[in-house]
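TL;DR need structure tokens for one chain.
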Amino acid sequence: MSFFRISKQSFLIGIFLMITSLAHSQKSTQKRLEEKKVEIKKELKEINALLFTNKQKKAAAFSDLENLSYKIQRKQELIKLTNQQINLLNSEIEENAKSIEKLEIDLIEVREAYKEMILKSFKSKSGKNRLMFILSSETFFQALKRTQYIKQYSLFRKNQAKKIELISGQLKEVKKELLYKRDFKEGLLVKNRLTQKTLELEKKEVNNIAFSLRNDEKKYKRNILAKEKESQKIDKQIDKLIREAIARSNKNKSDKNSKGFNLTPESKALAKKFELNKGKLPWPVSRGVVIQKFGTQPHPVVKTAKIKSNGIVIATEKNQKVKTVFEGKVLSVLQFRGSNPTVLVQHGNYITAYKNLSKVFVNKGDKVISNQYIGEVFTNTSTGKSSIQFSVFQKTTPLNPLLWILKMK
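>> reply
TL;DR here they are.
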């Protein structure tokens, strides 16, 4: 009987530890979701500040359409994350309710058992009966065993009292947690409804702009294709420049077709240092928001049109200075007729590219340090949009810059 009770106590403690472990895991998931939401809220704040400060002219309506579409995407992601939080909370609330039910049943059982034990002890006039129980032993060893039994019984009573206290404490904490989660869930639902409301208004605005520009849709698509063609032209030239630089570095080697730079020990150390700073590099501008990500993706407005990006596009403020993200050497300053300058900086086997500049402060061959100003971002006078495209290459292979730079604070 005592073994059964001890086992049950261990079982209760095990259940509580399991509940605590599950709660910790759920809190960790909630924390990750909340951190993502904080990032998106910061992005939305920057989007409003950088892309919607001035009411654009009709000529910039297509630009407004792109900006609004991007803003809608981020709000939809925010709503999605909040819904995930709410679903997780529903699961947690259900688990808490089950735990409360289980703990309340266990508490009743333990209290009843303790009550019964106290009554039996009282009826037997414990002190005298215990002494007689020991003195009536037939042998010394029997008396010793009976003494040990009385001690165990006394200890068990104390443990039962502690168990009642433990379960009561657990029950109080779980109920407190349940109330907090219900309030938190209600707060999330209210915020989500408000976000949904603004989202619907912005979708309506997008539809209105799209309707007013329906006659210019073909022109808009041609502009998208022209921009894409221009971007590909610059990317091909960057690829050519990097290959030529690799060939020059290998001109005295027997293998003239090497795909990598022939680096000096100093350049190898620089490349290693660059690698070790992956995820820690500063942004090329002091303030900005990523409005186009790396890789092939659908156009934010014309979903049938595909955009291929070797980097990320960062919207920023007018006249914003552009900085190097790491020390290195200016490999090239590239400019086509009708396009804005691009600066390439070499960091051993790595290259960083800074496209869409209005001014350039460096020349080919210059040594630069991290956070050094190398130019100024270009601002489109018709749309009022200031942006820079930032890319990272390992030799000629484009890499996702978002994996290399710090998260914007």
